[in-house]
Amino acid sequence: MRPVGSKYLLEEPLGRGATGTVWRARQRETAGAEAAVAGQPGETVAIKVLKEELAQDADIVMRFLRERSVLLRLTHPNIVRTRDLVVEGDLLALVMDLIDGPDLHKYIRQNGPFTPVAAALLTAQIADALAASHADGVVHRDLKPANVLLDERGGQMKPMLTDFGIARLADSPGLTRTHEFVGTPSYVAPESAEGRPQTSAVDIYGAGILLYELVTGRPPFAGGTALEVLHRHLSEEPQRPSTLPEPLWTVIERCLRKEPNERPSAENLARGLRVVASGVGVHSSPEQVEAALGVGALLAPDPSPAPVPQTPGAAPAGAAAAGAMDAYDPNAMTSVLPPVGGADATTVLPSTGAPGPDPTSVMPPVRQPDAAHPWQSQMRAARDRNEQTQMQYLDPSEDPLRRRPQRQAPPPPQQRPQQPQQPPQYRQGPPPQQYRQQPQQPPQYQQPPQQQYAPPPPPQHYQQQQRQPQQYQQPQQPQQPQQPQYRQPQQQPPQAPPPQQRPPREPREPRRRSANPVRIPGLGCLKGCLVLILLFFVAGWLVWELTPLQEWVGTGKGWWDQVGTWVSDAYDWVSSVGNSADGPQS
Ligand SMILES: Nc1ncnc2c1ncn2[C@@H]1O[C@H](COP(=O)(O)OP(=O)(O)OP(=O)(O)O)[C@@H](O)[C@H]1O
């Protein structure tokens, strides 16, 4: 068991993502005042240890510290709470509440798609979480099933949104240093794919993709390559699956609008989804059915969507540090926990009111320009575990850092991936098994929600935050559906046969280095010469045996005899030349 700081002990890995490994861990002692949740000795927590390469990137470390206050104050019943941030030498770690349950990606793969009612209620809670974070000015930007954990306590499933802040770390200028496009193509909003300014509407687009995947088992835009998928996000309209109730499709279609301003706010999305869930169940009343059919009127766009801060201009490490200190919030101070075996905690940032230490003293070594970029190894790891994260080659001619080698240059306004290096690894939907809390029934969306999905108690009021550009209101819970009346056919056609599953890719063998790393100059040339001589020899033999050359030369000898004769003639000639050269001297 490995200690993390003085307060936590890693016990076993829970999973590995592109940015790090999540561990089940135990609290050794109560965390200090710098943690949002002090915790108790013996309590279990989840700790995401960011990859070492990330921890060695000065930009990312500073961003991590700056995001601290945002992450720690983000609390909502459907958001995995960040309890503490640990910065210790080359280690960056997020301490979170431990969620007992799988993530949605795994869940869909193992259990098949959800019924429309269950999917709507589940996504409504995710929309609640988004509404709360958007009201606080925080955009998730990486919404996908793998980032939704299912808390299965008490026989209910509560979706918990996680990985807030990780996408924000990815804004680091350090990540624009290589010619790579990094992202998850299946869930990326058109404006993100194009490099246009992003707002909280990107999360609504992600919620639309997620909802589509929940009910069909696969995202709406797939393709052979990441580039194809991105292109589809930009140019193709999603197609309504025949089994999808019309009101649910209305919601999905509005979320997937190419124009961000036409997508509903998270709050309206949550409300609309609850109305839909009430109106498409087998017990829905005529009024509920009517309300569900009119859901479009509820999906008003967000008049003031939360903007995603533009990626800061790539700046020298020193300038980045200075910038970080400019933005430093003394109340959001992070302490460096003592190194393993060390005695005293060292403060990274200045304590409130005290003069700050030189920021460069806390900077980890800046990555050498020719060293492997952190994302290269992360993307390799993601590919090895057959994840959806993609790496895309970016044409050097489109790399703004090449055109503007100064790191003060702003980030590229458009980073279009040019040449796909490998096909994306999309998980095809599994065979449409029934949602596991359901009895064996045909896959009809009219199942009463209480049989398929146990909605959690109404979410508590979102905690008042320090800055609240928007007011987030408590979502209304829908009335229980009572009567099955819905325009969709009662007997639905059987679901389309599941698309062929790709065989899981075997992890690649690590590249082996040559057993003899010593390079011999000229060895390649020598080999070439020997091969050439061999070729001449074989060609000569063929000509000698297969053509009348043997008779023309008149010897009648075989090839080997003739070669022996030529060699001895040559030897005699060389000897005679040598003797005549030696003669005058002797
Ligand atoms: N708070 C938590 N409690 C319990 N398990 C968790 C928690 N956070 C993550 N996990 C588990 O750890 C695994 C890895 O999580 P991680 O966030 O690194 O994966 P990911 O979302 O696939 O990666 P990434 O977003 O970096 O591409 C997940 O599959 C999830 O099941």
Main traits of this protein?
elongated, six-stranded antiparallel sheet, Ser/Thr_kinase_AS, two-stranded antiparallel ribbon, about 575 residues, about 10% strand, NEK_Ser/Thr_kinase, alpha+beta, Kinase-like_dom_sf, binds adenosine-5'-triphosphate, single chain, 12 strands
Strand order of the largest sheet: 1-2-3-4-6-5
The ligands bound in this entry are: adenosine-5'-triphosphate
Q: How many strands?
A: 12
- Give a quick account of the main beta sheet: strands, pairing sense, barrel closure: 6 strands, antiparallel
Number of helices: 19
Which stretches of 5+ consecutive residues score pLDDT under 50?
Answer: 172-182, 312-501, 509-519
Describe this entry's structure for a reader.
A hairpin with a 2-residue loop joins strand 5 and strand 6. The strands form 4 sheets. This protein has a 6-stranded antiparallel beta sheet with strand order 1-2-3-4-6-5. The chain has a two-stranded antiparallel sheet with strand order 7-8. 33% of the residues lie in helices and 10% in strands. The chain is elongated. The longest helix has 24 residues. By secondary structure, it is α+β, with helices and mostly antiparallel strands. It contains 19 helices and 12 strands. Adenosine-5'-triphosphate binds next to strand 2, strand 3 and strand 4.
